[in-house]
Fold this protein.
Amino acid sequence: MKLLFVLLYSAGILLAQSEDLERLNFLIGNWKGNGEGFGNSKSVISSTYSSTMNDKFIEVINESHFEPTEKNPDGEHHIDRGFISFDNARGKIVYRQFNIEGYVNQYLLNESLSNQNTFVFETENIENFVPGGKARYTIKKLSDTSLETIFDVSFPGKEYACFGTNRLTKLK
C-alpha cells in the first residue's frame, strides 16, 4: 500500500510540474529577430526554447550579434543559456540564466505581474553583479508566431530601466 501511495504521489508531482510549465509551451521552437537598446546598439538575435529531460525543463539558448558602435567598433556577440523549471517546494516557476559576461541570474516568475500572454521574471539572486542590483526579464506573447522580450535592470536605490528589447518571429 505504501509503495502504491509513493508511486501515485510521485506521478502527481511529475504531472504537476509538466502542467505548471505547460503555459510556456508556446515558446518551444526556434525564433529569429532583431533587438535594440543594450548600449544603443541594434542586434540580430536567435533564440531556441526546447523541452528537455522528460519535459521537466525548458532549455533556453539566446545568441545576439550587435552592430558595431563608436564605443565598440567590433560589435559584440552575446550568448546566454538557461533552464526554466518548476520548484515544487515553493510552487514557483524559476528561470536560471547563465551569461557569457559571467552573470548568473536566478529569476522567479512574478505571478502578480504576469498573465496568459505576459510573463515577468524578476531576479531573486544575481551572481557577479553590483550588490543589491536586480534584473527583470519579460516575455510578451504577441501571437502564436511572434513575441517580444524586454530586459530591465535596477541598480541599488534606482528604479528599473529598460536595457533592451527584442522582437522575435517563430521559424517554421
